[in-house]
Specification:
With about 300 residues, this protein is an alpha+beta fold. Helix content is about 30%, strand content about 30%. It starts with 12 loop residues before the first strand and ends with a helix.
Length: about 300
């Protein structure tokens, strides 16, 4: 193996931690780091998943010149949990060659060490190699020769591309979604027998909240309730006529409306529409006109 490049920029700070199986090795490596004047924040000993995650979290939120050191029985678990955080590239290294490859190819910024299978002397050699090997340096994987231009370009792009993995899926999942929508995800809504085209799912009762859907073209005849109710439109478009107050409200996604108790109101749905509604008390509905009368009135209002 080629000698490490001792002129490579070293990290300014190392954040270290271990589980009980890796504590002795971690302590030896922390002492070594301090002896060569590298600042160390030693997080001590915890379970492998929590210490790996904590080191990963801190490296993820730190500057590029801060790296991590983790140790457990195999060096695998702590590395896996550290890698849950964006911008963290933890590598489990059992030999100096592993460390050199991890730095050269993957720009590893967290070193994971096996407390059960690595001696202190070997671990120090692995750590020194990892500290002193720059990204894209010659390494055993390149037969210790400089990478050609094509591979160098690939290595540069790979680090940027790794950081993007998963982000598109997260954006798709979060786009157009909210906590209210998640309340009824994969739930069946029950038809509202009193009004064609409508369906509803009670989310909770007293105070009551529900998700309501209406098909495009549906009309709610003039009606009133013994309760006032708040609603927020999540999908679609609708108009509400408060006939008691002589007001009309045209609502689309994100719009909020409160209708006071007893107010007579009529509704028209222009698109498939879904909304969240909340009220005090139990569901009731008293009609003030029939459906055909309502449809005729809506046509006159909307021409």
């Amino acid at each position: 193996m080629a000698e490490p490049n001792t002129t490579a920029p070293r990290p300014v700070k190392i954040i270290a931690g271990a589980d009980p199986f890796g504590t002795d090795l971690k302590d030896a490596l922390v002492s070594h780091l301090r002896s060569i004047n590298i600042e160390v924040e030693d997080l001590g000993t915890s379970s492998y998943y929590s210490i790996g995650a904590e080191v990963g979290r801190r490296v993820s939120s730190s500057s590029a010149d801060t790296r991590g050191l983790v140790s457990c029985g195999t060096g695998v678990g702590v590395g896996m949990f550290a890698n849950k955080y964006p911008g963290v590239f933890a590598a489990t290294c059992l030999t100096p060659s592993d460390a050199q490859n991890a730095r050269s190819i993957n720009n590893s910024n967290v070193l994971a060490i096996s407390g059960k299978s690595t001696s202190k002397d070997s671990a120090i050699e692995i750590l020194n190699t990892w500290l002193n090997t720059p990204f894209k340096a010659p390494c055993p994987a390149s037969e210790n020769k400089p990478w050609d231009d094509e591979v160098l370009c690939f290595l540069d792009n790979s680090v940027a591309e790794m950081s993007k993995i998963g982000k598109e899926d997260e954006e798709k999942e979060s786009s157009g979604s909210c906590s209210i929508c998640c309340l009824v995800k994969n739930r069946e809504l029950n038809p509202i027998e009193m009004i064609p085209g409508g369906s509803m799912k009670i989310v909770r009762e007293s105070p009551t909240s529900a998700i309501v859907r209406f098909k495009a073209g549906s009309v709610e005849p003039a009606h009133h309730h013994t309760f006032g109710h708040d609603l927020v439109v999540m999908e679609g478009r609708k108009s509400v006529w408060n006939m008691s107050k002589g007001e009309r409200f045209d609502l689309s996604v994100g719009d909020y409306l409160f209708t006071p108790a007893g107010d007579v109101h009529r509704v028209k749905y222009y698109e498939d529409t879904e909304f969240f509604i909340k009220w005090d008390g139990h569901w009731d509905m008293f009609f003030d006109e029939d459906l055909e009368t309502a449809k005729s009135a809506v046509e006159k209002e909307t021409v």
